[in-house]
């Protein structure tokens, strides 16, 4: 029994509190204690067990209603308070005496300051990573005008820059890598020329029958080439056209898959013989026999018998080429008796196609776009553009064409370059005149144009 005023534990038959001296009725006090105990325990049960209550469940054991430590800490120094036998069982739970105990997983809470430091550090790392990625992307795609111009000048089509075995199903090797679409046509390739890597993408227009090839250097388009489907002769095999390795399927060429392989029956039945009455001869039999013995010949066949071999090859090439051109002419680039055929389209700046014969086959090389093609007759060198402009210097050795130098002329700024070497005006013109375009043998192919409609007649009559 406890004193109703100070809570001191009293004997059951005490008439007054030994601690504070308050008198009390034994029967009345016992009844009041029972009521208070029931109300407190009911409230505790509601708060700790009802979902959505005002206080969350706790791993701590419930304090008894008469825990004086919970009600009045002024008794902390009361006599006998620190005696474990005197204190209530629930309050003696060791978990109350452990300052590091956390009922939520027994992990100490992280301070707000520490959380802020960690969040700030993570945010800083993310910002640095994003900035580094942006800087890398921009630097990778940023190309100077000089570097881009150099990439254009050094560019060569794949088959002219890399050794390719067209007999293979996939001619990829250590130098060039091809990728294909779902119809086994080339979709892209990557290769290197003069320490510069080029990426090409191949687009197919089955309606217009044109292959469009875009060449990029570091994500910048430097050259576009179009090849007509009609130049491909067989499906599902590689052919080199203007330096590009091309393979089309039956659908591209308008051939049904079944028609590409003739169907032959195992035991064909002979066709039935029918009697056909011979037609009545309109001429005497002897004269008819003489006429049939006479060899047939066309005017073109008679003419080709008189043409030189290189003329026949150029005429056949013009009948089958996919090069788009409006004009052409014959010039002597290297020191032999066979001229080279130059083709170009109308326009202020267009590529020139240098066609030459090697092993009884006509090959072609496409220059960079320019206003003209200047050359030294039988000297091997020629340029795309006049040498008082910006252009390229090429060399033809009789079997192939190669890009040798670049040049840049700016009279207003008094700047003259050959490759990356800056020269004086005198040095610039002296080098080009004495080493490349020798004055007394310098010509411009565009000064002698022959239209496409009469170009073949010009070739036949060329001397």
Walk me through the structure:
The protein has 463 residues and is α+β, with helices and mostly antiparallel strands. Helix content is 27%, strand content 23%. The chain contains 11 helices and 19 strands. The strands form 4 sheets. A 7-stranded antiparallel sheet has the order 17-16-15-14-13-12-18, with helices on both faces. It has a 5-stranded antiparallel sheet with strand order 1-2-3-4-5, with helices on one face. A 5-stranded antiparallel sheet has the order 11-10-9-8-19.
List keywords for this structure.
alpha+beta; seven-stranded antiparallel β-sheet; 11 helices; 23% strand; elongated
Sheet with the most strands: spatial strand order: 17-16-15-14-13-12-18
Question: Major sheet: size, sense and barrel closure?
Answer: 7 strands, antiparallel
Spell the H/E element sequence: HHHHHEEEEEEEHHHHEEEEEEEEEEHEEH
List how many beta strands DSSP finds. Answer: 19
Silhouette: elongated
Radius of gyration: 50 Å
**Count of helical stretches:** 11
Low-confidence stretches: 258-279, 281-304
| N-to-C CA distance | 140 Å
Which structural class should the secondary elements be placed in? alpha+beta
- State the share of residues found in helices, binned by percent: 25-40%
Strand content: 15-25%
Q: Average pLDDT value?
A: 77
């Amino acid at each position: 029994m406890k004193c109703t005023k100070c809570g001191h534990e009293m004997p059951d038959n005490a008439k007054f509190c030994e601690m504070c001296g308050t008198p009390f009725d034994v029967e009345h006090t016992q009844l009041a204690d029972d009521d208070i105990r029931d109300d407190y325990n009911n409230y505790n049960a509601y708060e700790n067990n009802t979902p959505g209550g005002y206080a969350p469940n706790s791993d701590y054991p419930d304090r008894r209603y008469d825990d004086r430590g919970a009600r009045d800490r002024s008794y902390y120094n009361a006599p006998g308070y620190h005696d474990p036998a005197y204190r209530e069982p629930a309050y003696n739970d060791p978990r109350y005496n452990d300052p590091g105990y956390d009922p939520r997983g027994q992990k100490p809470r992280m301070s707000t300051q520490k959380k802020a430091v960690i969040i700030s550090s993570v945010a800083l790392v993310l910002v640095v990573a994003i900035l580094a990625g942006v800087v890398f992307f921009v630097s990778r795609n940023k190309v100077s005008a000089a570097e881009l111009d150099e990439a254009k000048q050094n560019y060569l089509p794949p088959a002219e820059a890399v050794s390719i075995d067209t007999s293979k199903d996939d001619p990829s090797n250590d130098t060039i890598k091809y990728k294909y679409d779902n119809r086994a046509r080339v979709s892209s390739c990557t290769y290197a020329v003069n320490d510069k890597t080029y990426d090409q993408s191949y687009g197919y227009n089955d309606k217009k029958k044109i292959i469009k090839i875009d060449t990029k250097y570091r994500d910048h388009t430097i050259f576009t080439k179009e090849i007509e489907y009609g130049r491909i002769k067989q499906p599902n095999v590689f052919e080199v056209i203007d330096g590009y390795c091309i393979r089309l399927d039956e659908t591209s060429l308008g051939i049904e898959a079944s028609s590409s392989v003739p169907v032959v029956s195992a035991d064909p039945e002979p066709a039935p013989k029918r009697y056909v009455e011979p037609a009545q001869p309109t001429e005497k039999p002897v004269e008819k026999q003489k006429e049939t013995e006479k060899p047939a010949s066309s005017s073109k066949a008679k003419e080709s018998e008189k043409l030189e071999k290189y003329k026949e090859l150029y005429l056949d090439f013009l009948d089958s080429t996919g090069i788009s051109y409006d004009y052409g002419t014959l010039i002597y680039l290297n020191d032999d008796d066979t001229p080279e055929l130059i083709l170009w389209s109308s326009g202020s700046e267009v590529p020139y196609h240098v066609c030459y014969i090697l092993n009884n086959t006509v090959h072609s090389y496409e220059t960079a776009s320019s206003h003209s093609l200047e050359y030294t007759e039988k000297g091997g060198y020629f340029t795309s553009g006049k040498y008082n402009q910006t252009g390229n210097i090429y060399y033809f050795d009789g079997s192939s064409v190669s890009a040798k130098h670049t040049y840049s002329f700016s009279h207003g700024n008094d700047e003259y370059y050959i490759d990356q070497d800056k020269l004086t005006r005198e040095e610039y013109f002296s080098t080009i005149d004495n080493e490349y375009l020798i004055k007394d043998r310098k010509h411009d192919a565009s000064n002698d144009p022959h239209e496409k409609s009469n170009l073949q007649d010009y070739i036949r009559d060329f001397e």
